[in-house]
Design goal:
alpha/beta
Length: 329
Amino acid sequence: MDQSPVITFADIADAARIIAPAAIRTPLLENDALNERVGRRVLLKFEGAQRTGSFKFRGAYNRLARLDDRERAAGVVAWSSGNHAQGVAAAAKLLGMPATIVMPADAPAIKLANTRVLGAEIVTYDRHKESREEIATALSQERGAVLVPSFDDPFIIAGQGTTGLEILDQAAEAGADVSQILVCCGGGGLTAGIATAVKTRAPGIALYSVEPGDFDDTARSLASGRRETVSPDARSICDALMAPSPGAMTFPINQALLSGGLVVSDDQVRDAMRFAFSTLKLVVEPGGAVALAAILSGLAPSCEGASVVVMSGSNVDPATYAAIVGAAG
């Protein structure tokens, strides 16, 4: 059986070339108060500054830019709770193709609205009763459109991996000796992409996935050695990280390259969002704050060098955000 990984470092380097005209090189930030609280140097990779407010644009653009004229004319279909939706919609608009996105009816209103503004057609579904994959697959077959998965696709994973290339380059520019990287994890595409990039160039760096409590399928899968699933009754404020299980493509990569999986509670995420607002002066959505929550809560293993925290997105409804950051800690 072929056990070769679905992507290589060369794929990520090529993705960086493809997305360079459209994507933003997001900042790697440092804050004295955070360093003092954690007790070591911490660098924050802020993907909220990316197009559409999350890392998802990277993979979406890398995937869509590869389509030929016939495929572009037919358009694309994707499924997403909101960040991949906006990434695909934005990439499709830039590349001049139609996009249809299958989104949960209870997705944050701002994510639904922003996806529509970008010109995509939205088909809603009940995330607790219906399969987004089945709905999207049926639509793509009916329309002859290209299906764009949210994480289980080589071009998507490679595109997300460009985040890792930037982290290494920017950390070197900052004179930081990085020992560990904490990555927000849903289906595992961002984690797998970053891990592939980092472990190729700096194999001594430890990488950890971070998930919300009821959606800890990657952490449990790393422990058991097989792909675990979440309970149908699972709930979390981290709407961007509600994948039911690790990806068939992403999990083997993460199993081979990660040092472990960390899990945070929704309350720890809320605390991290408040810290990001009050101290870092950054807006972060719940799913984008889980890695920050892990290091603030003392869950990240101790290390000699600097820690990098990936803050994966900033798309959050104003009312939800106000309720969280305005609450007493």
